[in-house]
Amino acid sequence: MFTAADFIPKTYSSTVENGNFEWSAPSNIALVKYWGKKDNQIPANPSVSFTLNNCKTVTKLAFEKRDTSTPLSVTNGFSFDLLFEGKPKEDFKPKIRKFLERIEVYLPFLKDYHFTIDTHNTFPHSSGIASSASGMAALAMNFMSLEKLLNPEITDEYFYQKASFLARLGSGSACRSVKGNVVVWGEQKNLKGSTDLFGVEFPYTIHENFENYQDTILLVDKGEKQVSSTVGHDLMHNHPYAERRFAQAHENLDQLIAIFENGNVTEFIKVVESEALTLHAMMMTSMPYYILMKPNTLQIINAIWKFRNETHVPVCFTLDAGANVHVLYPENVKEKVLQFIKNELVGFCQNGQYICDEIGTGAVAL
Ligand code: DP6
């Protein structure tokens, strides 16, 4: 059994003065949702997601050994510059600083270097698509590349597990953005190797019906999130339905294990849509309560149900903690669904905007 202490390095065998790395990491879309957490970013229930392919964060990390004559107390510990789309972005720094504080015990070299973190997303910034998963994963990959220079002996397995472990400490769902194509995070008794500490690739057979599964993201509301995920997760403490909901996530994962094996897309749709609506139901029944869907979210859901009933095309939806709709469908109905989206759903999107994505393989060194 892994514990967090397994990721605390004992000694480093090499030294390095300066250099740089660049990694991209994708976003992911949860099928069984992570909603509710314990201390230290431990999830209240297991979750599973499709790793995406096109919605990514690309992060370059330049590092340089610091002048040790400057006392660390003067520089407040960490030293880094943050560039977003090539320009300094002060408002992102507190989040990064908090991340560095959380991971320092696992990467004891962090205060020895000055870092320049240069990052951008391949999707529009104010699209309502969360960049914390891809962003934290991309940064974690870069830090692991540096750790590998300091300790060349670490294995690939350790590299990816620890990258996911670190990403989790930045943002829970980020731990599912390191690997592809289907990633499980959180201990579940029938999923071998599953752990609360990091995301693992789905360990069993996945039917060809789910190969290249498509996700078209309909941008219904591109505004700032009404409820931050931190506040949202907190709402599950003392929530009247929390325990039942956490148990249901385990059951839904059991169902997905069977579905991924037998390729039953009809059953897949039931689990995935129910999960999305349950996530929103949790927010509607918390105190304080929120409605995160917009009228157009419901219009889209109803249009998808009508289209599916009439055509038997196996298209379904899922939602994040917001109003945007992820439209999920097998690759072999891509043309029909894209035509349906253009004909009937684009009108419900803000400025007619949507993003075509599909299952992907995870973080990549550039
Ligand atoms: C609704 O990973 O953003 O997207 O750990 O507080 O950073 P923090 O939360 P975050 O929560 C994501 C919640 C979700 C469901 C999911 O992705 O599983």
Structure, described:
The protein has 366 residues and is an alpha+beta fold. The protein folds into two domains: 14-204, Ribosomal Protein S5, domain 2; 213-358, GHMP kinase, C-terminal domain (Alpha-Beta Plaits, 2-Layer Sandwich). Helices cover 33% and strands 23% of the residues. The chain has eight helices and 14 strands. The chain has helices spanning 93-103, 132-150, 156-170, 229-234, 242-262, 265-284, 295-311, 334-345; strands at residues 18-32, 37-38, 42-43, 47-65, 79-84, 87-88, 113-121, 182-185, 199-201, 214-218, 316-319, 325-329, 354-358, 364-365. Strands 1, 4, 5, 6, 7, 8, 9 and 14 form an eight-stranded mixed beta sheet that branches. A four-stranded antiparallel beta sheet has the order 11-12-10-13. β2 and β3 form a beta hairpin. α2 packs across α3 (156-170) and α5 packs antiparallel against α6. The two termini are 33 Å apart. The model has no long low-confidence stretch (mean pLDDT 95). It binds ligand DP6. The site of ligand DP6 has 17 residues, from α4.
